[in-house]
Amino acid sequence: MKYVLKKFISLLITLFVISILTFTAFSVIPGDAALAKLGIDASPEAIAQLQEQYGLDKPILERYADWAIHALQGDFGQSFNYSRMSVSELLATRLPVTIILAVMSLLIIVVISLPLGMLSAKFSGKWPDVVINQTTQVTMAIPSFFLGIILTVIFGIGLKWFQVGGYVSPDKDFWGCVRYLIFPAIAVAIPKIAMVVKFIRNSVLSEINKDYVRTAYSKGNDENQVLYGHVLRNAMIPVITFLAMVVAEILTGSLVIEQVFNIPGMGRLLITSISNRDFPVVQASVIYITAVVVVINFIVDIIYQLADPRIRTS
Amino acid sequence: MEDKTLISVRDLTVGFPAGKGDIHTVLDHINFDIGQGEIVGIVGESGSGKSMTALSIMGLLSKDAVIMDGTVELRGTDILNIDHEKRRKIQGDDMTMVFQEPMTSLNPVMRIGDQVGEVLKLHTKLHDDEIERRVAESLLSVGLKNPEELMKSYPHQLSGGMRQRVMIAMAIINQPDLIICDEPTTALDVTVQAQILALLKKIHREKKCSILFISHDLNVIKEICQRVIVMYHGTIVEQGSVDEVMYAPKHDYTRKLIASMPEQLSENISKDPLIHVKDLNIYYRTAGKIFTSKKDRMVYVKDLSFDIYKGEIFGLVGESGCGKTTVAKALTGLNTDIEGTMDLGGTMPQMVFQDPFSSLNPAMKIGKILEEPLKLAGVKNKTERREKVNEVLQEIGLDESFAGRYARELSGGQRQRIAIGLALMRGEKFIIADEPVSALDVTVQSQILKLLIRLHKERGLTILLISHDLNIVRHMCNRVVVMYLGRIVEMADVNELYDNPMHPYTRMLFESILTDKKKTDTDKITVNEVRPLKRDQEMCAFYGRCRYAQDKCQEKALELRNIGTEESPHLLRCCLRIARDE
Prior knowledge:
The structure holds 2 protein chains of 2 kinds. Chain A has a single domain (88-313), classed as MetI-like (MetI-like fold, Orthogonal Bundle), CATH 1.10.3720.10. Helices cover 79% and strands 0% of the residues of chain A. Chain A has helices at residues 2-28, 33-38, 44-54, 60-72, 87-122, 127-141, 144-158, 174-208, 211-218, 223-253, 255-261, 266-275, 279-307, 309-313. The longest helix of chain A has 36 residues, at 87-122. Chain A starts with a helix and ends with a helix. The mean pLDDT of chain A is 84. Chain B is of the alpha/beta class. Chain B has 2 domains: 5-258, P-loop containing nucleotide triphosphate hydrolases (Rossmann fold, 3-Layer(aba) Sandwich); 273-505, P-loop containing nucleotide triphosphate hydrolases (Rossmann fold, 3-Layer(aba) Sandwich), CATH 3.40.50. Chain B contains 18 helices and 21 strands. An 8-stranded mixed β-sheet of chain B has the order 15-16-17-13-18-19-21-20, with helices on both faces. A 6-stranded mixed β-sheet of chain B has the order 6-7-8-3-9-10, sandwiched between helices. In chain B, strand 18 and strand 19 (487-493) form a beta hairpin. The radius of gyration of chain B is 26 Å and the shape is globular. Classes of the chains: A mainly alpha, B alpha/beta. Chain A binds chain B through residues 210-212, 214-222, 225, 230, 233-234, 237, 307-310, 313, and chain B through 58, 60, 84-85, 88-93, 96-97, 99, 101, 104-110, 118-119, 122-123, 154, 156-157, 167, 170.
């Protein structure tokens, strides 16, 4: 319990620091929302008026304090760009899509990499290992946007397994949304699968020569019993960290795929908001993303404790 | 007593592929038997094939090993050339194995109970409750307390000695006919070693199983075995009863193995202190917590006072964790968090480390490694440095060609010579040797010790010799200090200390030594795995393990008191007055 509390405090500190950093960054870079909205030809009076309306004329500390107080109550202000929508509403429509996509990609990664990695390690140097190694080598080299295009061409335009550009919102039809997201998730997953397979293989191989494995054989275990009963759990410990990194990357970096498949997720929102200087949205998005990454780390720490008793006691 | 043969090894020949279709033979036509209920020892240096023999019998040879010839028969049936399925039925059922490294031989993420019970799960149809009961029984029988609690714990929560007991519990639980022990005590402290050997003897008596006991240490073999096999370069050079082999060795190599330790006898040592240490405390910092300014600063070594005289070999003994290496680190300046007086007499102590395999940079040529101290001392002239390197290489019994080689091309003994040479490069007069030979084979050990003695005599070197090997200390040192949990508990001239050990801990250490003298009774060693006290506690640190412990031991901090003469002091930190011969 003390551990959870400690982690929670560190989460708050991280968020605080990130919020200050983004706030500062946006005050330092040239151009503000008013200018972006009205264009460079606008009269100085009009800009000044809009600045006043958005509160951009106040000193930065005051603006930060204002924002922070509201943000703590869940109010991230109004979007400059999408008028009549509060930032919270905007995020509420976008965030779930990205999270569903990330979770689906992760499931695909784990379900495919684990058996492939184990197989590759078990037959290391023999033909299954060579085949897996060659295939992953290729898939690792394909950028996911290109993979997305290929998937669209084959399964969308060719086989018509999904309707190109026919995105379904998760509130209206959850399973419809999932069905639509399968191919984007595959596009995100494939390059990562290659890395995770290699990682699992190496992790298992480095465990296999350890003394406890010899002990396990000396008891009369056969190869599979040793591999799945003894080696797997030890080998998974470094893999968990690696997977967490992969998930964080997916959550923040699937924006190219969102473009290719026309998915209204966080990535696309962030891109538009940054180019429009839609400061409240960017600020809130960055906070959300940070929170997600920190929360994942927190979850990983807990999984770690379950997997490795040595961490539990120290 | 052994009319029946259990294991019979005939013409066993094993090799490894050495490229280009060649095979490098590691076992060459090995022949021997193990009788039912017999304890057979195999002794030899590393690479002699003793472990390979054990793995062949156990069926654990690595996949690339090639069995070129021979059979291993278990009760008359060949078990060497059978398929995996049949093999598995024998492993863990008819024979089990105890390995050298208790720290790594248990699965770190599996509970002790599951690991010990696994053998029964694999080989019997017993119910889970019944398995649990048997596991508890087995843990009790190897001298572990609270089996229920222990079964739920993980390996990292146990000490090395406890883990080795767990390994033994695992080996005996299914009542095998043969237990193969591969250097089971090598990684353990002497006191723990003695306990484990006593335990194995007890098991042998009670279960009437056979034991194949592998060791590089003849004293250990003699302690436990009835018959001994001496291996050298993959062949058996001699075998017979322990007495025959030990007291009338026929083969040259055996004689070399038995040949005693080098002895240094320089009586007239000056009483001129070179190193003077007074009331020294050495601290370790544990990581401070964020949000709290409190930093944990732990006293690791406390109230350390001693002088090392010019030109003597000063021994420092104690079990692992007692602070031996910490003292060495403080003297060489690797540990700077200290309080008290430390006068090094103008010397810059040089260190020789325990493990010659990992303490030399693998990417640097020996010549470069040896030159480094000179470079740091500001010797700019290249030829001057080279000459000095060659000079030192000669002195440590190597030749100039070694300057162009890498550490991996050298044997363990040669590497340790280099490490000693490194300590000599700057012409310092004081060397700290931290377990300099414990990673080496017995025959190599004596060469390295001889080198140290020669340098000590020729150069007038003063040496602080840290060792857990009490035999070596006795033969090498002029004076000896015994440490327990960060404190000196006894200090005296070597003969005085070995003839009249007064501290209960020193006595326990000495009772654990396996000497070349025959001992009649070794079962009296008490099984004692009490958790030690914290270092900063004021009472006698040895209280929990002391067989003479009394209430007054808990009362106050103890001072070192002199129970010898002014001439040759014998310092002791113990409040009891135990009779000399008790």
